[in-house]
C-alpha cells in the first residue's frame, strides 16, 4: 500500500521544497510540481510533491483522522 501525506511548503530552493507537517520539517522534490509555491499544501509520496491540495481539504482530512484515532483508542 502506498500512502501520501499532505504538508505545507515553507521554503523552496531550486527544485527542492522544505515542507512541514505537525511541526516536522523535511525536504521534498518539486520536479513534478514546478509551479508550486511557498504556502501551498502538497501531497508528498516517496520524497516527491505529487499534487497541490486545498488547505480546507487538508484540515478536513486531519479532523477525520483525529476522530478515527480517538474512536480506535476507546
Radius of gyration over C-alpha positions, nearest whole angstrom: 13 Å
Beta-strand content estimate: 35-45%
Instruction: Count the beta strands.
Output: 5
CATH topology: SH3 type barrels
Number of domains: 1
Distance between the termini: 26 Å
- What profile does the largest beta sheet have? 5 strands, antiparallel
Q: Structural class, please? A: alpha+beta
Q: Which outline best applies?
A: elongated
Name the quaternary structure.
single chain
The CATH level-2 architecture is identified as Roll
Query: Count of DSSP helices?
Result: 1
Major sheet: order of its strands? 3-2-1-4-5
SSE sequence, one letter per element: EEEEEH
Mean pLDDT: 91
Helix coverage percent: 25-40%
Uncertain stretches: none
CATH top level class name: Mainly Beta
Please, could you describe this protein's structure?
It is a single chain. By secondary structure, this protein is of the alpha+beta class. The chain has one domain (5-73): Roll (SH3 type barrels), CATH 2.30.30.140. 26% of the residues lie in helices and 43% in strands. It is built from 1 helix and 5 strands. It has one helix at 55-73, and strands spanning 5-13, 16-21, 24-29, 41-45, 48-53. Strands 3-2-1-4-5 form a 5-stranded antiparallel sheet. A hairpin with a 2-residue loop joins strand 2 (16-21) and strand 3 (24-29). The longest helix is centred in the last third of the chain and has 19 residues, at 55-73. The protein is elongated, with a radius of gyration of 13 Å. It starts with a strand and ends with a helix.
Amino acid at each position: 500500500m502506498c500512502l501520501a501525506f499532505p504538508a505545507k511548503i515553507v521554503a523552496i530552493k531550486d527544485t527542492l521544497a522544505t515542507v512541514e507537517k505537525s511541526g516536522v520539517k523535511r525536504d521534498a522534490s518539486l520536479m513534478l510540481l514546478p509551479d508550486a509555491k511557498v504556502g501551498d499544501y502538497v501531497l508528498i509520496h516517496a520524497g516527491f510533491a505529487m499534487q497541490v491540495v486545498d488547505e480546507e481539504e487538508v484540515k478536513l482530512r486531519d479532523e477525520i483522522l483525529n476522530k478515527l484515532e480517538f474512536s480506535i483508542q476507546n
